[in-house]
């Protein structure tokens, strides 16, 4: 029976991949067209090109420049913001440093039997993947208008605050310990809404207005949530949990919160705060929020009578859908840059025409 299910799934994947291979280059772009104000704007984004800088050699000065952002003197004007396809690379170096640090702590524990390495392993192991993803979204923020201080504040304070809101909602709702679809849905709803509320708070606090800003703030809060939650799970279920939690962090809270952050920007009026009315009346925001709740529910749902292989397939589908939503938001973010820069050019032309008319009169 299991072989038949696996065979059927492989055929389905092969069929889907054939279609994706033919249409993927335009699929995310076609969806992103409907999120922006200028559907005729063209943007080129391919995952193979997006990560093309990862394996290239980069200088220390290039790395330093990534962090000198977000101040009055280092934030570029809108016309100088790059609308070219984003190509993050530094996040892999961050992950490498954290992975090496974790490996050294493992040596300290297993080679020298030092229990003092355990707290460090829990923290670094929980931090490695979420924080590396956060650095990727930091690189992708082409507006360079959020400083490292703001980012770390959002990561720490926002992450803990989202856990506080989550626990407060858990007290008000009947969460059970069963692994039913109903309970998975309730957990997904509570945690994603809790993170969403905190993301809204920080977006309004920082007065940001761009899709990439929302994605970054969401990723910071999601990464903080992930780190502290994973640390708690390891303390409760044992050190080996850190390996599964770290692996799973690639497609969970950081990615889900980044999607919600971008959706909040899509759902609010530019240069105005996100309101309670926006929460319930903006379809573009609400669709992404429902998607994230569905992804979280699907991730937590322990489908009855399934094997480990099917559980891994379930997680893989979840990750693929989540990252596809991220590529859509990146595409929409680049479209937004081009649209805003086009408006600047149009406004300048209109101003020149007005001046010519005034001089003629």
Automatic annotation (TrEMBL):
Please verify whether the record's keywords include Transmembrane helix: yes
Q: Can you name this protein?
A: Protease PrsW
One GO biological-process annotation of the entry reads: proteolysis
InterPro entries noted in UniProt: PrsW
Q: Which domain of life is it from?
A: Bacteria
State which residue ranges cross the membrane: 90-112, 118-137, 149-172, 184-203, 210-228, 248-267, 279-299, 311-330
Q: Name one GO molecular function term.
A: peptidase activity
């Amino acid at each position: 029976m299991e072989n038949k299910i696996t065979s059927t799934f492989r055929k389905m994947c092969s069929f889907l991949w054939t279609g994706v291979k033919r249409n993927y280059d335009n699929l995310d772009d076609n969806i992103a067209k409907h999120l922006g104000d200028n559907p005729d704007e063209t943007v080129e984004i391919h995952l193979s090109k997006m990560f093309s800088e990862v394996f290239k050699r980069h200088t220390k000065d290039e790395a330093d420049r990534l962090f000198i952002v977000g101040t009055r003197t280092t934030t570029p004007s809108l016309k100088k913001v790059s609308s070219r396809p984003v190509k993050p690379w530094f996040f892999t170096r961050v992950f490498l440093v954290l992975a090496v640090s974790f490996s050294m702590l493992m040596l300290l524990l297993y080679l020298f039997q030092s229990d003092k390495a355990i707290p460090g392993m829990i923290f670094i192991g929980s931090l490695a993947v979420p924080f590396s993803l956060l650095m990727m979204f930091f690189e992708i923020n082409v507006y360079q208008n959020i400083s490292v201080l703001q980012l770390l504040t959002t990561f720490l304070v926002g992450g803990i605050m989202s856990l506080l809101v989550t626990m407060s909602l858990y007290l008000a709702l009947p969460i059970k310990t069963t692994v039913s679809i109903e309970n998975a849905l309730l957990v997904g709803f509570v945690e994603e809404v809790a993170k969403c509320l905190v993301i809204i708070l920080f977006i309004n606090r920082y007065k940001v207005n761009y899709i990439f800003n929302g994605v970054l703030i969401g990723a910071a809060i999601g990464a903080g949530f992930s780190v502290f939650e994973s640390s708690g799970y390891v303390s409760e279920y044992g050190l080996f949990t850190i390996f599964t939690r770290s692996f799973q962090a690639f497609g969970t809270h950081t990615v889900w919160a980044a999607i919600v952050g971008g959706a909040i920007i899509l759902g609010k009026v530019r240069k105005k705060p996100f309101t309670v009315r926006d929460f319930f009346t903006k379809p573009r925001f609400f669709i992404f929020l429902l998607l994230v709740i569905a992804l979280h529910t699907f991730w937590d749902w322990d489908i009855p009578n399934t094997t480990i292989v099917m559980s891994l397939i379930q997680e893989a589908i979840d990750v693929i859908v989540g990252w596809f939503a991220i590529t859509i938001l990146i595409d929409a973010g680049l479209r937004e840059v081009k649209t805003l820069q086009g408006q600047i050019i149009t406004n300048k032309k209109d101003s020149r025409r007005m001046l010519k008319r005034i001089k003629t009169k």
